[in-house]
């Protein structure tokens, strides 16, 4: 008698295939089928199902289905032990029924359960057993012509393969993982083509939930391959799609599980990318939604590190211990190991090496039992760090050698980078063969620096620089100093300084989805190139362009080039930009140009050379303490408000006797800055270059820590002290009051890799002077910077003279009409820059409207909140950001630009130096006049108008032949007046922050 499965229609017309000989089950009642067709039953084996009645069969089948439903529910709540027991009972029934499809369903689900519990050995065995049984069952299906059953076991193959996709991804076998994902998509397409007549609904993915699960696997593969930017964008799209499916009853449970999986993945991506607050929000949401379940325990472990670094170390430890107990009870051994590793990390950070090692070894026992190879790599790295902390270098080397060999075998570039860094750390700390350490450290430091540019979000790039690239570069700079390799150190500094502009993945638009947003274009926005931007206040899709290939000098390539090729080969670096960019500008004949680049890498490093001798390099480390002292004095004197300080209080502090309010206070600051930041060989060479009466040109690219330095104001020491000086001793190093401005002209040096569009054609000047900001009082925080002007004011008379010489933009009959206009918004700016113009002079408010990244530095124009842009509105006003300029279709900037506002030259002080200053350069400006700190308004000195004096000087210089020389000459006149009459109106606080970023002679008008 045949029960359960329908009998085959035709008797097999060929012998039993060899692969079915050793099988104990072929998918259904094979012995019964043999008898049914009058075949010899001996080769088919005796099966229990042959003796079952139809009723018994149906009852057992129903019991198996109920057990599977129960086991799935237990698996969703991560009750691993309960799921194991229930799937075991299901398998017993499957064997009684001779139902391979049920057995494979149980085993494939068990593979998933084992993987979620961290039992990678059994997860792999279960998944591979399913695929092997699938082959055998397929042979039986073909033999008997019973093709219905293949549709019943195909789902189990898909589940098993997804476990293997995860395992291959963790092991670094990206190609195999992608091959399996592609196979799943190919078969899904074939099933959909066959339709519901051939396959049940659960195999047709009617709502697309299975595809979303595959996309989560894609995200994991992207992360393993180093594509953090793609992973970050994809996970957001997945979560949006899952939200749209959340209310469909048939897949509600599946969607909830996928949402938890996706949010956990996003939390990991955000943590890796430095988006700590957003990662914390994901983890807190998971913890709240799954309270009392193992997923909540996992989330609390991830949150414990924040708690520890916030100062509650005992609370963090107690949280991990409690969560680990919950995970032990649930049977989630993999998460238990993670908890022990997290606990060990905190203990090692606290200096308790012995207890940290105990926790790491506990995790290692679980990873060993589970055949978790990536986990065992982490164990070796952790134990190597423990051994280093105790000075046991031999043991540390043994552990890190194992970890490195495992990472190389896996092909995981990030693990290889990490383990190589630990090995380099051990070698450097122990003072081993430093050349061997260099061979290891230099390529990995270059690779770490390059991978930073693969992240889309600036937070992620900054976190990567802080936690990965930064430490590697710091160690490398120290090593190059010990090896006396100034050229390599200088080239590394120049490469670090050569970062490019922000670029959008989809071209010059702020569309976040890859297609232009549908916007209702109101009449006021017609013809506006920015109209397609939309209102975007979330993270911007901006990549920072990596450095292109650099050229050191006309006669010398970069010595770093072969090291970069080695780094690309060793760590699978993404493709580099094809252009080669010179690192030096052209210089005027007979005038020596000095090139100074500063880079922060633990200490601050300076490299300098001159255009007359590009191949002779000078490299100097400036100790962190010296830079800190310089910053302390400068911050105390600068009128830029500190946190919680009002602008008025900041100005009063800056104009005090200890700062810029007296000549003695200002001179002391100039001398402290010079002694700490200008090396003796540079000072001596500067003086020598000026001996013939021709002022050299000093061009400086400051590091973030030195962005606010007024370089022209620095005093030139006559000698160096042989000991650390007290503040009242610094005068012993100076015979006079000679400043940098006295012997040289000074300008800022643009990063070499900023791509530059051609400037606008020559035409009238454009003036945006003190725009009225919607919703802001003239006396408020974003009020007037020029104060009340009238026809007799010096600035208005200057503007009237300009009007007498020819037209200006926007069109005006008098100079007074150019000030405090209400229409100077981004629409007018786009219109004015669309035609010929010789220069742009902006005077107004400049600020950082969000976070510490350049893209959100902004000009405050007369823009209302309903205009499109990337910044969140401030009341009824929307600032115009560097991102708006960089990613819009706005036409080129004029060749000369003035951005006279608070710290408008602060780009170099940001984690990523691409604010309004460098955005203007990228848009075509060859020269940009800006200020390095907040400018006090003329209200600070009643009866004088230093702000107008500065604006007039800038506009006059920009209209001249050599703006840098003219502005430096003007500053020398201000310095002379300050020396003669050190009164508040003449204070350097008003004129010393002015600087020019001069890119006119760089010869790099190119567009990436």
Helix content: 40-55%
Residues in β-strands, percent: 5-15%
Q: Please, what is the average pLDDT? A: 83
Radius of gyration: 35 Å
State the major sheet.
Answer: 5 strands, mixed
Measured distance between first and last alpha carbons = 76 Å
Poorly predicted segments: 23-29, 505-539
Number of E strands: 17
Shape: elongated
Strand adjacency order, main sheet: 7-6-5-8-9
**Helix count, DSSP H or I runs of 4 or more residues:** 34
The class by helix and strand makeup works out as alpha/beta
Describe this structure in words.
By secondary structure, this protein is α/β, with parallel strands linked by helices. Among the domains are: 29-157, no CATH class; 584-749, no CATH class; 765-998, no CATH class. The protein has 34 helices and 17 strands. The strands form 5 sheets. Strands 7-6-5-8-9 form a 5-stranded mixed sheet. Helix 4 (100-116) packs antiparallel against helix 5 and helix 6 (148-170) runs parallel beside helix 8. It starts with 29 loop residues before the first helix and ends in a 10-residue tail after the last strand. Residues 1-20 are annotated as: Disordered.
Write the topology of this structure.
Blueprint: H1 30-36, H2 54-76, H3 80-97, H4 100-116, H5 120-144, H6 148-170, H7 174-194, H8 209-224, H9 228-245, H10 252-272, H11 276-289, H12 294-309, H13 313-330, H14 333-349, H15 353-369, H16 373-389, H17 393-410, H18 413-430, H19 434-451, H20 458-482, H21 486-497, E1 502-504, E2 542-544, E3 549-551, H22 561-571, E4 580-582, E5 593-601, E6 603-610, E7 613-622, H23 624-637, H24 647-654, H25 663-677, H26 680-689, E8 697-701, H27 740-743, E9 745-748, E10 766-769, H28 794-805, H29 826-833, E11 839-843, E12 846-848, E13 857-859, E14 880-881, H30 882-887, E15 896-900, H31 916-922, E16 927-931, H32 946-958, H33 963-980, H34 988-991, E17 994-998
Parallel strand pairs: 3-4, 5-8, 8-9, 10-11, 11-15, 15-16
Antiparallel strand pairs: 1-2, 5-6, 6-7, 12-13, 13-14, 16-17
Helix pairs in contact: 2-3, 2-4, 3-4, 4-5, 4-6, 5-6, 6-7, 6-8, 7-8, 8-9, 8-10, 9-10, 10-11, 11-12, 12-13, 12-14, 13-14, 14-15, 14-16, 15-16, 16-17, 16-18, 17-18, 18-19, 18-20, 19-20, 19-22, 23-25, 32-33
